[in-house]
Amino acid sequence: MADKIFDYIIHGGDYNPDQWLKTPEIIDEDMRLMNLAHINSATVSIFSWAMLEPEEGVYNFKWLDDLLDKLHENGKAVILATPSGARPSWLAQKYPGVLRVEESGIRNEYGVRHNHCLTSPIYREKVRNINTLLAERYKNHPAVKMWHISNEYCGECHCDLCQEAFREWLKKEYDNDLEKLNFQWWNGFWSHQITDWSQINSPKFRGENHVPAMKLAWRRFVTDSTISFFENEIAPLREITPDIPVTTNFMRLYDGINYQKFAKNLDILSWDNYPAWDRGFNEKEACSVAFVHDAFRTMGKGKPFFMMESTPSLVNWHPVNKLPMPRRQELSSIQAVAHGADSVQYFQWRKSRGGHEKYHGAVVDHCGHENTRVFKEVAHLGEVLEKLSDVVGGRSDSKVAVIADWEESWATQYFCGFNNEHREYFEECTKWYKPFWEKGISVDVIAMDDDYSKYNLVIAPFLYMLKNGTIERIENYVKNGGSFVTTYLSCMVDSDDLCYLGGFPAENLKDVFGIWAEETDSLPEGMKNIASYNGKNYDVVHVCDILHSKGATVLGEYETDFYKGTPAVTVNNYEKGKAYYVAFRNDDDFTRDFCEELIKEISLKSDTEIKAENGVSIRKRGNIIFVMNFADDPKTVILDKEYKNVVTGESVSGEIALDVCEYIILK
Ligand code: GLA
Ligand code: ZN
Hints:
30% of the residues lie in helices and 20% in strands. The chain has 17 helices and 28 strands.
């Protein structure tokens, strides 16, 4: 598949005219309004199954035929959805086995969405059937450009079929060898040896939930069954519409499914972006969102990347739904494009009249006209996006990678010990991403089994579990001249959470890092140690390792407690490269100061020579530079030379002021 699907930025979103078929004039009005708002695309039929198949085997495609024609006549690209995310009630009534069984063992009743068994052969067959019909009917429709598969896959099912599928999955995973599984899960502990595969059930609160290896296996199984469900969904599409690319919308850092694995099956990576703006932590939120964009961009390994959903104003599902200030959503949308997205899409085009999401932000409000603040902002952004076609397909070339591995996020949650209150894996990864984001240095967010060789620096915070091959991967990377950083509680267990023997970090990594981590201390809330580094003192909070240098240079030391004077930060020259170990957690400035030294040491350059105060994010995509003010006050930006303002066409140079939520796009 191509590295770009469109030659322009997609501006559109979820469109549900199937809710408005009784008032066709509203659908006509939608076309007028879409044109006014510079909307060039619509995602349709996401939850339309009951409209398409009102009774089993009785189909009604007429409304969709008309809709696609109408969208096409109005020049809109259609992203056509498969409707498996919600199902008609007749289907659940006739085939209750399609419904999901919760951990309690009780089968859900019909209702809500995402409420289906991933294994159910009937559900899979019904999904395949409706998808086949959609593909056959619209394979040559000129408006249809992309498939949107289901919606936000999530959750799991504990029915008998899923239990059986889990056992079959385990047999494959452990070479049909129960002894191997017993060993890897360390089932001698608490007499948990399994003597027949049928004794294994999914992890449950009221059952087995203290075997980390089993919990890891279950998450891997849920990932694989979701992917297999997806593959079943797209099989007819691949056959009938081989040239129409597929995506499914991911959810921020949702870790119920290993997205990094799922990404391989997609043609386009996409996610739904709902930041919590204007609550007093905009800068932090901007950095977190940037991190997520970069994670999905990187996951695609060069495939196109879309922001499939965002709200043009507020959401309805935060505990308290604050209105983002004027221009905030525009800035948020521009940020997506700056980080590689080829689309800005909304949930939703028009507010529904009833139901659960009627107060969720939309481009068109219940008032029904274009004279609203939100509509005008969307229309304005639409005009801006039309001037940004050049960025489509543009990539960034990162020299720095932060490892944020979905499976690591599971492993760091599942073990019991040390500080059980503070794990926050992805937050830790974001903390190490931030210093580079602040300096306008592009970062890839990778999995631990990705290729490290193209980076000058790889940072792996809290690399507790090592998947197969990771030890060699780190060793080779450093040997060949790479700089590698890891932190506390790292390199301790294999992919089944089985501890490495012989001391941490595991095996050869003791030589690579030149240290031995003998003990780990945990600090109750409010207690801290101090680490000195480069003439400054930093708080040590939550957790820290006590190290011995076995050849590493000590860069920082603990200042109190019985381990006062022992190493807290080390670096080891290992063949051509350097391996750093930061033995403690700090929630303030340590990462910034430490990374500043690394940046000097490795001679990393910011992607541009433009200078700005903190709170301003500078991001280069292809040859276009985005300068965005996420701070809560106006900021000054110093341009290093004359640029062209891509939106206004004017030349700009010298010092410029960016108001709150203001951005400038330069070439
Ligand atoms: C998700 C879903 C949408 C909608 C929005 C609301 O992202 O995919 O259908 O429910 O949330 O924010
Ligand atoms: Zn099931």
